[in-house]
């Protein structure tokens, strides 16, 4: 299939989200499967925050067991360049294992942080990626 004729929503699936919220506690998304896709992408938005924190890309099984960190990223505190920033993590199939074939993101907070995240998968192995969208996703056009 010619990739130039596909809509972006047919190449990128939104598997899960971490809805925007202000919290003083760590927040972790659902663990989502990667088996039907060639690549994954996690986008994390950090708004106003009162302390430093850490973003962690995780791998695990479908229940969140067998968890291990794939990558981490620190973000800044109040009045620093860490406010209102966007971070991305690329996910490759080799980042996962036979017993930890799902991925998730965790937003750690030492203070109050406003955060949100989108977990995406790219280039489905079979059919349009949008067939695997989270049930809360609506493709308008």
Which descriptors would you attach to this protein?
3% helix; Jelly Rolls; mainly beta; 1 helix; 141 residues
Structural class: mainly beta
Helix content: under 10%
CATH superfamily: Galactose-binding domain-like
What is the tally of beta strands? 9
Largest sheet at a glance? 5 strands, antiparallel
End-to-end Cα distance, whole Å, is 20 Å
Detail the poorly predicted runs: none
Task: Provide an overview of this structure.
- There is one protein chain.
- Helix content is 3%, strand content 50%.
- The protein is an all-beta fold.
- The protein has one domain: Jelly Rolls, CATH 2.60.120.260.
- Strands 2, 3, 5, 6 and 8 form a five-stranded antiparallel beta sheet that branches. A four-stranded antiparallel beta sheet has the order 1-9-4-7.
- The longest helix has 4 residues.
Task: Indicate the topology.
Blueprint: H1 8-11, E1 12-23, E2 27-28, E3 32-33, E4 37-49, E5 53-60, E6 68-75, E7 85-91, E8 102-107, E9 113-124
Antiparallel strand pairs: 1-9, 2-8, 3-8, 4-7, 4-9, 5-6, 5-8
Concise summary:
With 141 residues, the protein is mostly beta strands.
């Amino acid at each position: 299939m010619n990739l130039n004729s596909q809509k972006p929503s047919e190449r990128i699936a939104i598997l899960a989200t971490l809805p925007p919220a202000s919290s003083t506690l760590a927040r972790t998304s659902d663990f989502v499967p990667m088996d039907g896709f060639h690549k994954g992408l996690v986008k994390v938005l950090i708004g106003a925050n009162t302390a430093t924190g850490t973003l962690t890309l995780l791998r695990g099984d479908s229940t969140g067991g067998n968890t291990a960190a794939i990558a981490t990223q620190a973000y800044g505190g109040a009045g620093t360049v860490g406010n209102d920033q966007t971070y991305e993590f690329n996910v490759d199939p080799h980042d996962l294992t036979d017993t930890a074939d799902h991925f998730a993101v965790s937003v750690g907070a030492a203070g109050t942080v406003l955060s949100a995240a989108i977990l995406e998968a790219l280039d489905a192995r079979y059919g349009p990626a949008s067939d695997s969208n989270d049930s809360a996703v609506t493709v308008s056009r």
